[in-house]
Structures are given as structure tokens and as C-alpha cells.
Design goal:
Layout (H helix, E strand, L loop, with lengths): L2 H13 L10 E9 L5 E3 H10 L3 E12 L2 E11 L5 E13 L2 E11 L12
Parallel strand pairs: 1-6
Antiparallel strand pairs: 1-2, 3-4, 4-5, 5-6
């Protein structure tokens, strides 16, 4: 599969909580780096992170740009916090494909309800 097909399928599998299908999309040498924390996960660790993430509910793909073995997926992720509050995040996943599987992801996560710091926007 190319990057577009793999990223589309990745979002579908995660959204549906099909954790047993997730490793089949990932190269044996897969690595995912989370830019905001600096953590790096191998294939098994990343599958467990997703499957065991507390309060995760949905992942909705919003945009996809791909060319051959490279692609970027922008998605909205929702869940429920430990306090019962609804949570919403945006994630951009930059992918590299090798041997028709996802070999590398670099993910950038953010909260979607942030307020710009005072004095940083033109009046």
C-alpha cells in the first residue's frame, strides 16, 4: 500500500478500536516519535499506547496529503478525561512507508481549546 492508503486505513483502525489489526499496518522496524514529549515508540509499544490510552473514544481524519511513500494525516481525536470532561486534540502524523507498511510516524499533538496569549494578536 502507498502512504495515502495506509494512513486512511490507520485512521479507520484506530477509530474503530481494532487493536489487533493495527500491527498489520506497521513495519517490523516501525518507530513513532512524539514531538511534544520526545518519546519514541517501537511497533509493539505504539500499539499498546493506543490500545491502553485512557478515555480514548474517536479519531476522525480531517485531511490527508500524500505522494508515494510519504504522507501527512491531520486528525481530530476525542475522549473523556479522568474527571469526566470531554477532551479534544488535533494531531498531525507525518508518515514514511517502507515495504508497503508504515515504517515511521512523527506525530505533533495539541489541545484544540487553547487561547492565544494576551498581546500576541494584532488589534
Amino acid at each position: 500500500m502507498d502512504a495515502a492508503a495506509l494512513l486512511t486505513r490507520l485512521a479507520e483502525v484506530i477509530d474503530a478500536h481494532e487493536w489487533d489489526a493495527l500491527p498489520g499496518l506497521l513495519h517490523p522496524g516501525f518507530a513513532c516519535r512524539l514531538v511534544h514529549t520526545g518519546e519514541v515508540f517501537d511497533r509493539d509499544q505504539w500499539v499498546r499506547l493506543n490500545a491502553d490510552y485512557p478515555g480514548f473514544e474517536r479519531m476522525h481524519a480531517e485531511d490527508l496529503v500524500a505522494d508515494g511513500d510519504r504522507g501527512v494525516l491531520r486528525a481530530r481525536v476525542t475522549g473523556t478525561g479522568a474527571d469526566g470532561r470531554a477532551l479534544e486534540f488535533a494531531v498531525a502524523s507525518f508518515a514514511t512507508v517502507r515495504d508497503d507498511l508504515l515504517a515511521e510516524l512523527v506525530e505533533v499533538w495539541t489541545d484544540v481549546d487553547q487561547v492565544p496569549p494576551p498581546g500576541t494578536r494584532p488589534v
